[in-house]
Every structure is written in C-alpha cells, then in structure tokens.
Amino acid sequence: MTVHFHKAAIVGVGLIGSSLARVLRARGMADEITGAARSEKTRGAAVALGVVDRAFENPADAVADADIVFVCTPVGAIAQTVADFMPALKSGVIVTDVGSVKAEIVAQTAPVVRPDVRFVPAHPVAGTEKSGPENGFVELFEGRWCILTPTEKTDASAVETVRAVWEAAGMKVEEMSPERHDRVMALMSHLPHLIAYTIVGTADDMEKDTGADVIKYAAGGFRDFTRIAGSDPVMWRDIFLNNTDAVLDCLQRFCEDLTVLQKAIRRRDGRTLQDWFTRTRRIRREVIDARQDQPENEKLLLKDKKK
Amino acid sequence: MTVHFHKAAIVGVGLIGSSLARVLRARGMADEITGAARSEKTRGAAVALGVVDRAFENPADAVADADIVFVCTPVGAIAQTVADFMPALKSGVIVTDVGSVKAEIVAQTAPVVRPDVRFVPAHPVAGTEKSGPENGFVELFEGRWCILTPTEKTDASAVETVRAVWEAAGMKVEEMSPERHDRVMALMSHLPHLIAYTIVGTADDMEKDTGADVIKYAAGGFRDFTRIAGSDPVMWRDIFLNNTDAVLDCLQRFCEDLTVLQKAIRRRDGRTLQDWFTRTRRIRREVIDARQDQPENEKLLLKDKKK
User: Fold this and answer.
1) Å from A231 to nearest chain B CA?
2) A205 and A137 in one domain?
3) Within this chain, do residues A145 and A272 fall inside the same structural domain, yes or no?
4) Residues 199-218 of B with CB under 8 A from A
5) Which residue among B236, B254, B283 sits closest to A198, beta carbon to beta carbon?
6) CA nearest B193: which of A31, A57, A261, A250?
7) Are residues B43 and B110 both part of a single domain?
8) Is the domain of A226 the same as that of A283?
9) Which label site among A148, A250, B156, B219 has the fewest CB atoms less than 10 Å from its CB?
10) What is the pLDDT of residue A1?
11) Which of B229, B237, B299 sits opposite A274 (nearest CB)?
12) Residue ranges in chain B whose pLDDT is less than 50
C-alpha cells in the first residue's frame, strides 16, 4: 500500500519529526509539509534544512487543512498539544503520535479527540542520543520496529495509512496493546536508559568525592553508557513519569538479579558468574541473528560524529 | 623511543594478544613472534592468519630465548602461567601482562618472578566483545589508554620499553598505583559490564516468565547492553573474582543512586529526574570532548560485522 497526502503536518520537528519529514520528502509522499516548533531556532533550522515547507509557532496553524498530523513532541506534551490544536483540524484527518509510552497517551487523548478525527497511537522505536532537526536523517527508521497500539475505537483504515507511512520509512510494523507495548519498552529501552543515567551520575559523584580523574579513562562499558545517558533529558523525564508502573516492575526484577550477582562476587562464586555471562553471550548472538543490531544506522551516526 | 626485539612471545593469542602481534608485525618491531595457546584451533588460526611465526601449546616453548613476553591470558590464569614458564625464561627478559585487574596480579606474581626477570604490570584498556585471534586487528589500541602500574620493585628501563611498545600501538600511556587502577576500572569498565550482564539476564527471565517475545524488540538501550554482555565469560568471571572489593564498593554507590531515581519515579518527581539527566548529558559531552569516543575503531568493528 502506498499513500500520498496533500498536506502533512509535523508538530515537533526534533530528531524524530525532522527524520520523518525527510522520509516524506524523499518518498514524495506529501505535496506540502508543515511543521510546528516552540523555539524560533528550531523553526528556522527546519525550514533552512528544507525538511518542512513552512514552520509555525502555534501547532493550530501547522495542522489546518492537513490530511495527517504527526505529533512528535516529548511524551508529556502530547495530550495537551493534541487538545490545543483539535479545533483547527479538518474533519476526517488522521492524527498519530510517536510517543515512547502508549497506555498513558491513549488514556489522555481519548477525552480530547473529536469524533470525526481519527487518532492512531504509534511508536516508531528509533532514535539516537541527539536532539534537534539538524540531527535527523532519512535512514533513521530503517529496519527498526514500529509498534502501533490501536484500541477497539481506533479507525482501521487510519491504522493502515499510518502503517504504510512507517513501512515507507523502512520500519517493520507490528500491533499490540498499549499495555503490552509499555511493558516491552520498559525492559528494552526505559530501564537501560535509567541504568545508564544512574551510573554516569555515580561516576561523576565518585570523581568529585575522590578529587581524582576517573571519567577520562572511560573504557568500553562506560563509554557506551555515556552515549545512552546523553539522550534528551525532557523526553526521558516524561517517559519515566508516564510509564511508572512498568518501569518500577522491571527495575525490581533487575535489582533482584543484581543482588544475586553481587552475592556471587562477594562469595567469589565463579561458577554462578560464568554461567550467567555464558547465557547472556548466547542472547547477544540471538539479538544479532534477529538483525536487531543494525550497522547501517550506526555507521551513519559515526559518519556524523566525525564532522 | 623505538624498540626492537629479536624474539617476542605472546602467551594467549586471543583478541588482545593477536592484535598486539599484528602491531609488532606492522611496525617491524620483532624479528620473530611466537605464540602460545591451549587450544589447537587457536594455534592453527594464529599461524594461518600470520600473526605469529610459530605457536606452541606449552608457554615454556614459546618464551624460550624471548626478549619480551606478553601474557595475554584471562586474569585468573596470569600468575599461574607466569609461574609455569618462569624456568624457561632467559635472564634479563621483560615479562608484562595485559590484565584488567592489577593489584591481585602484582600480589600473585611477586613471589613467582625470578630476581633476574623484569615484570611490568600493564593494562592496555582496549577490546571488543569478541574473542579469538580472528577478531584481532592492528588498530584496536589506537587512541586508547594504557595504564602501567609499576611498584618500587619494578625495573625502570623495563617500564620504558613496555611504554614504547604500547605507544607504538597508538596508545596514551599513564602510570598509577595498582590500587588506583583497580578503582578506576571498577567504575569505568567492570561495573558497566556487571550491569549489562545483569539486565540481559533479567530480560531473558522476563521473556520466559511471560512466554511472550520481548528481546526481539531490543531498542537502542538494550541493544547496546547486549553487546557489552556478549563479552568473554571466562575473562569477565576472572575480573570480578580478582577485583572484588573495588567492584562491590562501586556497586554499592550505584545502588544508592538507583534508589534515589527509583523513588523519584515512584513519586513522579520530574524535577529530580530532569536535573539528573541534564547533568549526565553534560558528562557525555565532556567524554566526547576528551576524545574517548572513538569512531575509527567502532567503524572497523561495524565493517567487520557486515561480512
């Protein structure tokens, strides 16, 4: 299925929004692309980069007459943004989001979406630790998962249209319940980010406590964590505030396992350690085999870093 | 300072040993390079790849007549290996290691090293999650830190020779006490690996508990962790068994910080989360500025993965 829009609006032209705009442009999927961003700098960059034709401060101005609206703001702003621009939408329009949390978004948007507006909750699972329209790129989504979380009230044809957009971006699209999405993402994305944020802060404190350089010796493990812990603070604050229960449940399980390994280290129980590490190495191979490790994207990022 | 050896022996021709052999070869630093490995497959690969001229099962055969011996076995095998080949060494030889733990190695080797053998404890902080001679490459060490931990008994000219080798490999060489090295590495490398190992196991358990796919949706955070958790199980078992106290101390600090963030999530305290995440983003920038993030190496790894 291919889709074409007379006008597509992207509310929030950051990393994800601007990458999506680049996809729509590259595939010739929209006659016009408008964008909305609160900061004048972001609007200027989005227009200068050619990712949107026109950029507005007020989302209502960007979404007027649009056939489809992509809400690409941080999770905490999605419901209010949708409520604010709702009166400006034309009838029959599709509104979809890219939020990393779904149950809260579904619950918060339900009371504000007009009956003649078709809302499709979606989460393209892609990103880098960078923010802003200048860091977007058309290949960002290639080979990644996009999870749609329609409810029984969601219009089926709108779901198919949104699916077609993300497939055009190169994503593998699946549907699941908002609750299942949130549990999967708590473990696969939110908890790893929380842990990376934690340890980088721990290292910073230790450096201050001891008055000696530590972080300059960042080795393989820690360096990877700093990259994750460099992700957008507001976006991630909102994720933890909106996926609280699933994150806390995963965190509890993680802490139990960490305690098992802590005890093995204290007791110098090499067998428990080696068995655990052997199991995780096998899982690593499974992830590679499942092609979830994607050199192409990372190469682009590295190329970008060299500039 | 440039150095040249008539014969260099590398005991343990895995990722690090074979990469070092490639450096010695590429820089023309040794007339002959011998290797030792327990497994016949590894010996065959090391010779077939041309990284060593001859490979032996018994380290004593490899080190005979060598001017310098690099012990590149897992940490837990270093002291015993050194003790075993000690009688075969010629007088005045330099023996150095690449172990990721230093205080234990210094303590364990002290009683077994002959007075006419010059032992230099060293740790080139480099590596990938892969093992084996086929995964080594000459650029592995470029731009990374190598930490030497000489004691008052260590021969100064031997330290300078070892320094020259690692500088020839492209490393930035620093000296510090074994104890300080172990504290720095506990935080920068050992704890991140422990955490990555833990969470990958947690995910595996959750998948089994719920009977539903989770790991196939591996997103940015988790995918990075699986790479770290794919590192060699025996090498990492030995690290935790030999740097116990420093790792447990860092782990305690990490758990305290994790509890602070856990409480902030439970109480939906967005300010604490955002402040923490903003601080870690700044640290990320400092790490990049310190050039500890090294695209060149990672590019090579990615290239390798594509094969």
Assistant:
1) 7
2) no
3) no
4) 199-206, 210, 212, 214-218
5) B254
6) A261
7) yes
8) yes
9) B156
10) 83
11) B237
12) 295-307
Mean pLDDT of chain A: 92
- Strands (E) across chain B are located at 5-11, 30-36, 54-56, 68-71, 94-97, 118-120, 122-124, 145-148, 172-175
Last residue of a domain, one of A140, A158, A176: A176
CB B127 within 8 A of CB B133: no
Query: Which residues, in sequence order, are bridge partners of residue A96?
Result: A70, A120
Decide which of B144, B176, B208 is a domain's last residue: B176
Q: What CATH number did the domain enclosing B296 receive?
A: 1.10.3660.10
Window B:223-262, CB contacts with A under 8 Å: 223-234, 236-238, 240-241, 244, 247-248, 250-251, 253-255, 257-258, 261-262
| pTM exceeds 0.90 for this model | no
Tell me: do A121 and A83 sit in the same domain. Answer: yes
Question: What band does A294 get if pLDDT is binned at 50, 70 and 90?
Answer: low
Rg for chain B, CA atoms, rounded:
21
Do residues A50 and A161 share a domain? Answer: yes
Number of domains in chain B: 2
pLDDT score of B49: 96
* A145-168 confidence digits (pLDDT tens): 999 999 999 999 999 999 999 999
- The answer to whether A145 faces chain B, any CB pair under 8 Å, is yes
Q: Can you tell me the distance from the alpha carbon of A304 to that of B56, in angstroms, rounded to the nearest whole number?
A: 45
Containing structural domain, residue B52? 5-176
Per-residue pLDDT tens for A234-248? 999 999 999 999 999
- CATH for B165: 3.40.50.720
In B177-232, alpha helices (H): 178-185, 191-210, 220-228
How far, CA to CA in Å, does A171 sit from each of A144, A292, B96, B175, B185?
5, 12, 50, 49, 39
B50: left (phi over 0), alpha (psi -120 to 50) or beta: left
**C-beta atoms surrounding A268 within 10 Å:** 11
